[in-house]
Specification:
The chain is 35% helix and 23% strand. It has 123 residues and is of the alpha+beta class.
Length: 123
């Protein structure tokens, strides 16, 4: 956190960036401002919960980007080991939901560990 605050000060954007510290799922329900871009990189098993908040907070025409959705390639394979099975299944469901949501224009980008990029079409 200190490094982030230092970087914000170094580039002189303290007046443009508000840093909120804490558990995102505790903070997100209290946010009401609309954003142009929302980036999700969090607990893989909770992406659906994060996305619900992101959809509520993203402007029409804005983008929601979710990182690491292919989870080390396990999501696109027949992976079924117990240790990560829940996270893999939740990410598969997340990708399906994002790709099938009529309020979004979404792409799954198979670069690195995978991204979904969704443009919000409707509020």
């Amino acid at each position: 956190m200190e490094q982030a605050l230092e970087n914000i000060r170094k580039v002189g954007v303290e007046d443009k960036i508000r840093v909120l510290e804490g558990d995102a799922l505790d903070i997100l329900p209290y946010l009401n401002e609309k954003y142009d871009v929302i980036f999700i990189d969090a607990s893989k098993g909770k992406y659906m919960e994060f996305f619900e908040h992101a959809l509520r907070l993203c402007k029409v025409g804005g983008y929601i980007i979710a990182d690491n959705v292919l989870y080390k390639g396990m999501v696109m394979s027949d992976y079924n080991k117990h240790k990560q099975r829940t996270a893999v299944n939740k990410l598969r469901n997340f990708i399906d939901m994002v790709m099938e949501n009529d309020r979004l224009a979404s792409k799954l980008i198979e670069i690195g560990d995978g991204l979904t990029v969704s443009q919000v079409l409707d509020s």
